[in-house]
Write a structure and sequence with these properties.
Elements lengths: L9 E4 L6 E4 L34 E4 L10 E7 L8 E6 L12 H19 L6 E8 L11 E7 L4 H12 L4 H7 L1 H4 L2 E4 L3 E4 L10 E5 L11 H19 L4 E6 L9 E6 L6 H6 L8 H16 L1
Antiparallel strand pairs: 1-2, 3-4, 4-5, 5-7, 6-7, 6-11, 8-9, 9-10, 10-12, 11-12
Length: 307
C-alpha cells in the first residue's frame, strides 16, 4: 500500500532489486526506554498505563474487566509509531518483565492466543497478503520498549525471504524443515521437545546460535496449532537462550505462508555478533560456530534453569 508523502508511512521499492522498503518517518519520534539513552519515565506497556497507548483492539482479560483498563494478561493495540497502516503491538504480561523467560507458560499461552487472533484479523483486511509476527528483545535487537511485547505487520506481499523459502520448499522433493528436524536428535541439535513442537539448532546455522521452533508435523497450521504445547516449547526456548547464552538481546520472527502448504516455524537469532560486509553487502553469511555447539549450550542453560 502506498501512502501520501510526508510523515505517513509508505512502501517504496529498491529499484536495483525490487525489494520493498517501509518508509516510516514518524518512528523517529519513538521514546526510547532501552539502551544508553533510555527514558526514565513510566513504561507505557505496563498495566495501569493503558491511556499511554492507542485504544486496544484485542486482549486476553480477567472476567469482569473492561477494555483499556487493568485486568489484562495480553493486550493488543495499534502501534503509535507505525511502519505501515497495519502495524500492531501485543503487550505480553501485565507486570513489567524484560526477559521473555520471566513470563510463565500460562502467560505465553494467553499471548500466543492473542497473536493468532490479531494475525487472522489483519489478514482479513483488504490488500493484506501476510501478517508478519516478530519480537525484538533488548536495545541491540531494536527494542525501544523494555516490557515484553511482540509486533504484527500486515504486508501487501510476502517478504522476500519468505518468497525464497516457499520457492525452495516447492522445488525440493522433501520439506527442508522436516528433513532437518528428522535428524536433530541423532545429530545432537535437539534442544527441547514438547508434545507437538520442537526446538532445534538448524543445520547449517546462518549465524551463531540461530535456533528454530517448529511443529513436529508438517501439515500443522499455526492458527490452529496446540497452544499448550507451543507455549511450553516457546518458554523452553526463551529459558534456554537466557540461561545458556547470558541473556543476550535477540530477535524472534514467525515464518508462515497464508494459504500455502508450508512448514511454519519460529526463528530466533541472538545478537551475539555483528553483521559485516558479506552479510550486509552480499546477503550471505559467515558462521564459525557449529549447530551442535549451540545446541549443547542451550540444553545446558535449560537444564540449569530447571535444576
Amino acid at each position: 500500500m502506498t501512502a501520501p508523502e510526508g510523515n505517513e508511512p509508505r512502501t517504496v521499492h529498491d529499484p536495483t532489486t525490487g525489494r520493498p522498503i517501509l518508509l516510516a518517518p514518524r518512528r523517529q519520534q519513538r521514546p526510547m526506554h532501552t539502551g544508553p539513552q533510555a527514558h526514565a519515565g513510566e513504561c507505557p506497556f505496563c498495566q495501569g498505563q493503558e491511556a499511554q497507548t492507542p485504544p486496544e483492539v484485542g486482549a486476553v482479560r480477567d472476567a469482569g474487566t473492561t477494555a483499556d483498563a487493568p485486568g489484562w494478561r495480553a493486550r493488543a493495540f495499534p502501534n503509535k509509531y507505525p511502519a505501515n497502516h497495519h502495524h500492531e503491538v501485543i503487550a505480553e504480561g501485565r507486570a513489567h518483565r524484560e526477559q521473555p523467560c520471566e513470563l510463565s507458560v500460562a502467560e505465553w499461552r494467553a499471548s500466543l492466543a492473542l497473536c493468532r487472533d490479531r494475525i487472522a484479523a489483519i489478514e482479513a483486511r483488504p490488500g493484506v497478503a501476510c501478517a508478519f509476527l516478530f519480537k525484538n528483545v533488548g536495545a541491540l535487537a531494536g527494542a525501544s520498549i523494555a516490557h515484553n511485547h511482540s509486533q504484527v505487520l500486515g504486508l501487501h506481499a510476502l517478504p522476500p525471504r519468505l518468497q525464497l523459502e516457499l520457492q525452495q520448499a516447492q522445488a525440493l522433493a522433501q520439506c527442508p524443515w522436516c528433513a532437518t528436524l528428522a535428524n536433530a536428535a541423532a545429530d545432537g541439535r535437539l534442544v527441547h521437545r514438547s508434545a507437538q513442537h520442537a526446538v532445534i539448532a538448524p543445520e547449517p546455522p546462518k549465524l551463531p546460535h540461530e535456533t528454530w521452533l517448529l511443529p513436529t508435523h508438517c501439515d500443522d497450521d499455526f492458527l490452529t496449532t496446540d497452544l499448550d504445547s507451543l507455549a511450553a516449547a516457546l518458554h523452553a526456548l526463551f529459558t534456554a537462550v537466557a540461561h545458556g547464552l547470558g541473556r543476550p538481546a535477540f530477535n524472534l520472527w514467525l515464518h508462515r505462508v497464508p494459504g500455502a502448504r508450508f512448514h511454519w516455524h519460529f526463528e530466533l537469532q541472538p545478537r551475539t555478533g555483528q553483521l559485516a560486509g558479506l552479510e550486509l553487502g552480499g546477503d550471505m553469511y559467515i558462521n564459525a560456530l557449529p549447530a551442535t555447539t549451540s545446541a549443547a549450550k542451550l540444553r545446558a542453560g535449560l537444564a540449569a534453569a530447571r535444576a
